[in-house]
Amino acid sequence: MTSTWRSDLMAGAVVAVLLVPQSLAYAMLAGLPPQAGLYASLLPLLAYAVFGSSPVLGLGPAAVLALMITQALAGLPPGVTPEAGALVLAAEVGALLGLAALLRLDALSSLLSVPALRGFESGATLMIAAGQLPVLLGSTASGSTLPTLAQSALHGGWQPVSAAWGGVAIMLLMASRRGGRQLARLAPLALLVAAMAVSAFTPLAGGVAQVGALPALSLPLAWPLWDAALWRQLLPSAALIGLMTFVTSLAVSESLAQRRGEKLLPAAELRGLAAANMVAGVSGGMPVAGSFSRSILLHEAGARSRWALVFVAAFMALALLLLAGPLAHLPKPVLAATIVVAVLGGFTARHYVEAWRYARAEGLLMVAVTAAVLLWSVGAALAMGVVGSVALLIRRTAQPHVARVGRVPGTQHYRNVERYAVECQPDVVGLRIDESLVFTNARGLVDAVLERVREHRVLLGEPQRVLLLMGPVNHIDMSGLVALQELRAALAAEGIRLEFSEVKGPVLDRLRAVGWLERQDVSLYLSHHEGVQAGAHALRPSQADHDAPGQL
Amino acid sequence: MTSTWRSDLMAGAVVAVLLVPQSLAYAMLAGLPPQAGLYASLLPLLAYAVFGSSPVLGLGPAAVLALMITQALAGLPPGVTPEAGALVLAAEVGALLGLAALLRLDALSSLLSVPALRGFESGATLMIAAGQLPVLLGSTASGSTLPTLAQSALHGGWQPVSAAWGGVAIMLLMASRRGGRQLARLAPLALLVAAMAVSAFTPLAGGVAQVGALPALSLPLAWPLWDAALWRQLLPSAALIGLMTFVTSLAVSESLAQRRGEKLLPAAELRGLAAANMVAGVSGGMPVAGSFSRSILLHEAGARSRWALVFVAAFMALALLLLAGPLAHLPKPVLAATIVVAVLGGFTARHYVEAWRYARAEGLLMVAVTAAVLLWSVGAALAMGVVGSVALLIRRTAQPHVARVGRVPGTQHYRNVERYAVECQPDVVGLRIDESLVFTNARGLVDAVLERVREHRVLLGEPQRVLLLMGPVNHIDMSGLVALQELRAALAAEGIRLEFSEVKGPVLDRLRAVGWLERQDVSLYLSHHEGVQAGAHALRPSQADHDAPGQL
């Protein structure tokens, strides 16, 4: 056995210790029997090992997905069990991710901005913790949003014995966190084993809800239900779960790859996640994703290749064999305690403060997304996050900053006249366009420029040229091009020439391809300084070409 | 009477001559009785004159709106006449525009890019012309998309006499276009009067469909139907019609304001359009917008103030009194001919070629929107235009160009090493980020930069610093900020410092507000050249502040 194998074996064992309690707990959280979580931690890991790319992605059931699964399975038609629904969901998530891989849609993951993603994850964390409260207290209340949970809690009582079990479990887990990382990671499994033993051999767990016996242990390999109406019903949820799966898994595997100096291929990642979910759908599991805590653990425990995941799966099979009997006695409040402590450990209120201080609008979006998770639904929250992020992006590009620039005395640098003491010439209006010219701002361009020309006229007299410093213009789309044409016409009506300086290479390539500069008779300068100095001897495009054979 | 009044009176008369046939024709096109078009050209014009801002907006029924109205009224519940539906629609469009004015949503108009708008208008033009063919030919076929029209045409025959009337009318109108502008503008009204006379006093129009007698002429002032279900049903259509009304009216009034050296207030424009449509909804009209052809005409005929619109309305009232009787005899094919000639005059295939040559993707979007109008529905086409434009914008920002830059020998300018012969120093990697750092590209930033560092290492040796030239970065959102933090950490792991040069004022203000540069210990330089030269003596942010009291 080489040293790589030994490292992977050790890392696999360490991660399995964390994965056993998590897989049981997240299955319960998703409203599924515990074995669904265990099954989801076997074959899907092998599938990812074959098709994926990251050596340290801690694949398996995940807390946020579990919450999404609960909501997705809330409206199943009569006769379809949650287990059957979860299999269809997993298969559908896998199929969608596979389709996204085929169509090279990995860029879709960028639709979730940091505020949207953090707002969503924080909301899900709070909702998961709130949802486990009744289990901790031995109440029958349940609900996947705060209003439904509160309504249900009005009618349910609570059991002091359950609450005692839950309270003690939480205290032990919290205490273990003070004892260092090793202890904190071992604690959940140790607690489960201890709780099973106490519950089985003493009467202390009398009346407390217990997990119950697992069915005969054979991997239930079977096709998911082929029911077109059911697949259609679950499609929107599957799309959202697929998006979350990809975004959260990619975020963790990318950040670890950067730390490890490895190169990650998003497309391979998408393929691996697709395969894992498809396999989960035919082997009794539930949708799976990369977990942040388990991935970090794989990395820190020294995993070197995807063989580590194969060893995790082997240890999970072993655990399944050993735990099948004893699990019957595990009190549910203990499992709920492991969930609450695990998810709340990931909650950071600081994120809201940071976003709010840096950009009000993004902070508000983050709060709105969190509130939507708690009060409405995960689907609505995700949609709000995507639409809100895009709206903020559009709003930002919609208000271009058009600055009059002048020369910093004694240099060839040109800066905003409102922020610097600079020199301006009366015959030329130097303007810097601080934004790409695209449809969201094209309509306002002409007015913004004419406004600056008026300013110039009042302060410095009648100009002969407007020289646009185009360095910050990264793109000009069709709408921007039409706006430039209108600008040229509007300036020409006042007897003023339009000229450009410092046009970026890719932008210039486009303008040249359609002969725009020649047709519009717009002069070009390599640097703004040259343009200002050129005075009446403006270079025509053909001459500029000659002087600068390379492109600007 | 002052000379302004005289100019406005003359311009009003000229525009009324064009508006009479257009208002009759567009009412027919919208599936409404002819008087709806005439009523829509009376009080709504006065309302705009009071609340609007442009002196040359040719308000009234419009061809594209007429097509949208037909589709909106296709699914009216039994018992609701198209006339009653059109009044509800107009009132609702007015209410929505008023709401948009209150909420200052005038920026929403920027959601329609040039390719989307042109694709939509071209599609509507073709569809309107195709829809008039059966009327021209005396067939009973009808439909507001090509498939429904074709299906309906399969079952209908045609009438040689109607076709003769239609053919002659088209030829006369086309011929008038060769006779100069004056003639072309007078031709439609002259043709209508001549056709009414021939039809009334000769037997030539026997069997040809005719407009029919108008009801007793009294302005039907009444509230629109207060039926909540009906208002809800028409709401999506009203929103789309409102958007088109605002966008097309604003486009024409803005471009004329620029030509006339006037300043246009989009908010006032929105208010005027809202008032006009609300009034149309209570005075027997139909939704109204600014027409391109009539606005140009008002401008060229010398209109100086919104009194011109008041005179247009007065002439329309006169026309209504004179035409009420004779209109009964007007053959419909003649009216259809005026529509076909008017709308096809505005169709320019060149727009597709231009868009395609300048940017494939925008050309494709334009074709797709046109096809959607013809084959699907105006609503789907508009939605496709908006979503497609936003998707292209996102795609553009998603692939940032990160260029290694070097010094143009003998200058202080830095340019892309791949396009210029420039000098680079081995200890510093100069990179220009050609895009704002926002969520759509944040995830790719670290990889893109590390890739360039690897290139540098191979070509020039181990660097000590990465100096990012931030001039083209117009915004950094929260996701971009997080990415920069990750970049700093990833570089630090390789023993490389991160530094910025030429950070824009507004961007720097934001970073300073949260103390980011200090916390992350990132140095700042006023110019890239300074940064490269600084070598080991990097300025710390506090020092930079001191050296440059103004902001960068």
Write a brief structural summary.
Two copies of one chain form a homodimer. The first copy, chain A, is built from 23 helices and eight strands. With 552 residues, chain A is an alpha/beta fold.
Explain how this protein is built:
Chains A, B: It is found in: Membrane. Chains A, B: Keywords: Membrane, Transmembrane, Transmembrane helix. Chains A, B: This is STAS domain-containing protein. 2 copies of one chain form a homodimer. With 552 residues, chain A is an alpha/beta fold. Chain A has 2 domains: 3-393, no CATH class; 399-547, 2-Layer Sandwich (Transcription Regulator spoIIAA), CATH 3.30.750.24. In chain A, 63% of the residues lie in helices and 6% in strands. Chain A has 23 helices and 8 strands. Chain A has helices at 3-29, 34-39, 43-51, 63-72, 82-102, 114-137, 146-155, 160-178, 181-201, 228-260, 266-282, 292-300, 307-323, 332-344, 350-358, 360-375, 378-398, 439-460, 478-493, 505-513, 516-520, 528-534, 541-547, and strands at residues 58-60, 289-291, 402-407, 414-416, 428-433, 465-469, 497-501, 523-525. In chain A, the strands form 2 sheets. The first copy, chain A, has a 6-stranded mixed beta sheet. In chain A, strands 1-2 form a two-stranded antiparallel sheet. In chain A, helix 1 (3-29) crosses helix 13 (307-323), helix 8 packs across helix 14 and helix 10 (228-260) runs parallel beside helix 12. The longest helix of chain A has 33 residues, at 228-260. Chain A is elongated. Chain A starts with a helix and ends in a 5-residue tail after the last helix. Residues 536-552 of chain A have low confidence and may be disordered. At the A-B interface, helix 6, helix 10, helix 15, helix 17 and helix 18 of A face helix 6, helix 10, helix 15, helix 17 and helix 18 of B.
